[in-house]
Design brief:
This protein is mainly alpha-helical. The chain is built from twelve helices and seven strands. The longest helix has 39 residues.
Length: 478
């Protein structure tokens, strides 16, 4: 089961050859995917050899091998974690029944919607990151970008497999539509807000992979709990790949912070708010890094949906989408009577209100997400602290800069103090990157394509990918 068949046109560990109808449907979709990849994948690097990892097994102890690959020749495949003997539905009204191997008819529409939304985010992020290769701060970073991109492509395959195998004609139509929507297109946008935003520069890329890929982790963890076993198995393997994406984000921001602190120290600057002086050193000042974090964190919070959600309640009740690590929680796993504190806007004030636990599941997942985010932010601050610079990166209040849910109608500062529209208009640039911040960052985005060299604004990584030495040529540019 752990082995993957690479002889087939579509690598897989699901015995695709035994299901001719499905195989044909996927083989029909494959060239359309490749057309999409050539049109919307990394621009300018399709023919370059990139040192990429490809999964050869689904055993988390040793699953990937590294080699030079041209991206369009990457072996995108259908890979599911092994089936667990006797697995049960672990939550909701069907708790204790055997996990479903086929789609339960009554939940078909709900399940399809979850799979389509998950699937839509994957190509969206590739589209958002399409031009970044041209300004990569090193070959190491360029390779990481492309690794993330090909794996998001594989995650699209994962969802398309589910649609084609389990949802008949409408599944096939949804699979086509996943290749037709475009991030940021006014007529055919991607489904969720954050996936229509731009990823204009590398600091945004690192923030995106830190904050938004982490939403991916939380949502995949919740779907990995699903009573629909094929979805659970798919998401379990996707999580193995996802870990690297968040590593890219966390270490990326750490390296930016570190380079800024080093440059400040070398120049004898101790005040982090001496922005112009710091910028003259060719590094990104800490307050601007904070603003980027504010932007990407707040955009990502919107991906958790409304604080109070019947969709989320229904999906849990049906056994389709659980809580974060549901199987490790100790309660009745049905939540019919419990409550959960939800931060709401009550009488013009932001305060907690106990809400029915089932309706508050988006909130709960979002709270778990914030805890997870804070761990890495602590590691960024440790670097700043080691340089003795009086600055701390903080996550903004959850009411800050929101476009979905309870706080859409208000303006709040990063501490959750309510602001009038006029105050917000005046102070927006304190909290979020301004045009001049963006221009400054853009001015730093000069490509560095010599092995072992890094742009001025980012420190080298501590170790190479696959333990390669510093001078390793991760992408053969020549
Ligand atoms: N933008 O009842 P509600 C990843 C809609 S990231 C636009 O609160 P629900 C990745 C909502 O669809 C993880 N619309 O919704 C990361 C609903 O519309 P309908 C992706 C939004 O269902 C980086 C209406 O508002 N996976 O993998 O409880 C790189 C009412 O809302 C938004 C998933 O998200 C929004 N932000 O919660 C690559 C998992 N939020 O249906 C990949 C699957 C809400 O009434 N999705 N709406 O027309 C879900 O579980 C849920 O759909 C959501 C929304 C959590 C997204």
């Amino acid at each position: 089961m752990a082995g993957i068949d690479y002889v087939e046109r579509i690598p897989n560990n699901v015995n695709l050859a035994e299901n001719r109808r499905l195989q044909r449907a996927l083989e029909d979709w494959q060239p359309k995917f490749l057309d999409w990849w050539r049109d919307m994948g990394p621009e300018g690097f399709q023919e370059k050899l990139v040192y990429l990892r490809t999964a050869y097994s689904v055993d988390p102890r040793g699953w990937a091998k590294f080699d030079y690959v041209r991206m369009p020749e990457y072996r995108w495949g259908v890979l599911l974690a092994p089936q667990m003997e006797g697995r049960k539905v672990n939550f909701g009204t069907h708790k204790g029944e055997p996990a479903w191997q086929e789609v339960p008819g009554e939940y078909r529409a709900m399940l399809r919607r979850l799979v389509v939304i998950q699937g839509d985010t994957e190509p969206a992020s590739v589209e958002q990151q399409r031009y970044l290769g041209k300004t990569a701060p090193s070959l190491y970073d360029m390779r990481n970008l492309f690794q993330v991109n090909v794996e998001e492509g594989r995650h699209l395959w994962a969802m398309v497999y589910l649609l084609q195998k389990y949802f008949g004609t409408d599944g096939r139509e949804e699979a086509e539509a996943l290749l037709q929507r475009r991030s940021g297109d006014p007529d055919t946008p991607r489904m969720l807000g954050a996936f229509n935003e731009k990823t204009p520069d590398w600091l945004s890329f690192f923030m995106f992979t830190y904050f938004t890929d982490r939403d991916g982790k939380m949502q995949l963890e919740a779907l990995a709990q699903s009573g629909f076993d094929p979805l659970s198995r798919t998401c379990r393997f996707m999580l193995t790949e996802e870990a690297h994406h968040m590593f890219v984000g966390e270490t990326g921001v750490t390296r930016v912070v570190q380079r800024t602190c080093e440059a400040m120290k070398e120049a004898g600057i101790t005040d982090p708010n001496e922005i112009e002086k710091v910028r003259k050193l060719g590094v990104i000042d800490l307050p601007t890094i904070q603003k980027k974090a504010n932007l990407h964190f707040s955009l990502t919070l919107d991906l958790f949906g409304n604080e109070i959600s019947t969709n989320a309640a229904n999906a849990f009740h049906a056994g389709l989408k659980g809580r974060y690590r549901e199987d490790r929680l100790k309660d009745d796993h049905q939540l019919e009577s419990g409550t959960y504190p939800v931060l709401r806007l009550i009488g013009g004030k932001i305060q907690n209100e106990d809400s029915p636990a089932l309706s508050a599941l988006n909130m709960r997942l979002r709270d778990d997400y914030v805890v997870d985010c804070n761990a890495g932010v602590g590691r960024w601050n440790k670097v700043i602290n080691e340089f003795g610079i009086p600055f701390e990166i903080k996550l903004p209040h959850v009411a800050f800069h929101r476009h979905i849910g309870e706080f859409t109608s208000i303006k709040a500062d990063v501490n959750g103090n309510l602001l009038s529209d006029a105050e917000w208009g005046k102070r927006r640039g304190e909290f979020l990157p301004s045009e001049s911040d963006r221009d400054f960052i853009e001015s730093l985005m000069k490509p560095e394509t010599e092995p072992a060299k890094f742009a001025s604004w980012i420190a080298p990584p501590k170790v190479g990918i696959d333990n390669k030495p510093g001078e390793f040529e991760y992408v053969k540019i020549a």
